[in-house]
Amino acid sequence: MNDDNYIRVLLIEGKRGNRPLFAQELEKKDYEIIQAENGSAGLTIIKKVKPNIVVINAASLRTSGIRICSAFRNQLKNIPIILIVAEGTKLPDNVDASVILTLPFTIQKLINRIRIYHPAEDKHILQVGPVKLNKKTHFVCCNGHETQLTPRLSSLLKHLMAKPGKIIERETLFKKVWETEYVGDTRTLDVHISWLRRAIEEDPRKPKLIRTERGVGYKLDI
What is the pTM of this model? Predict the structure, then answer.
């Protein structure tokens, strides 16, 4: 195995029904797979095996995976969790998963999601406090949740992360992110800030990370 691509996956996967199984396919791609047949078995070994990521094939367990995700999140708050569910599964908005994939999908789609957490991607990763931004894929991970941003939202977050704890004036942010000298109307900046808060704040209505300095600008309060 190439050390640059080394990543250990804890795969929670059963063998029930005719649902797709992913252990063998991932092993073919040179991932180290530690497999557990259910959530309880995975929880007993997670701190010992120290995985880089947890993949929960809830469809193979004939469950939604909600409780399993919560249990793993309680054990390791910042570990990436990919939840795989069957088509038609209804989930609440607050599932403790970084990524949710709904069957059917190709193995390549799963691999693409896992690649976000490859050590080889470190050169693209910008992290400040709990906020981790992949500048290449525009995925942001914060407080155990992951969202793919638009390139413009990614650029806005990147500029805020470049000066944590410091207020950046509205006009300065607007010029850099929109790459323009015209700052006659910066209301679109406020809209983008609200979208960004939805992506990284636990409660966008009561933001703790992206603070507003009225009449001046914004800052990443970390």
Answer: 0.57
Which residues are within 8 A (CB) of 67 and not within 5 positions of it... i.e. 6 or more apart? 39
Structure tokens at 40: 């309880």
Give the SS3 label for residue 106: coil
The ranges assigned to domains in the chain are 3-117, 122-220
* Burial classification of residue 55, based on how many CB atoms lie within 10 Å of its CB (0-12 exposed, 13-18 middle, 19 or more buried): buried
Domain at 3-117, CATH class: alpha beta
CB contact at 8 A, 52 and 80: yes
Number of other residues whose CB lies within 10 A of the CB of residue 82: 23
Q: Which fold has domain 122-220?
A: Arc Repressor Mutant, subunit A (1.10.10)
* Residue 165 falls in which region: left (phi positive, over 0), alpha (psi -120 to 50) or beta: left
Q: Is 167 exposed, middle or buried (0-12, 13-18, 19+ CB in 10 A)?
A: middle
Give the tens place of pLDDT for each residue, 9-25: 999 998 765 667 898 89
**Topology match between the domains 3-117 and 122-220:** no
Cis before 119? omega within 30 = no
Distance in angstroms (rounded) separating the CA atoms of residues 126 and 136: 10
Please state, as a whole number, how many other Cβ atoms lie within 10 Å of the Cβ of residue 181.
Answer: 8
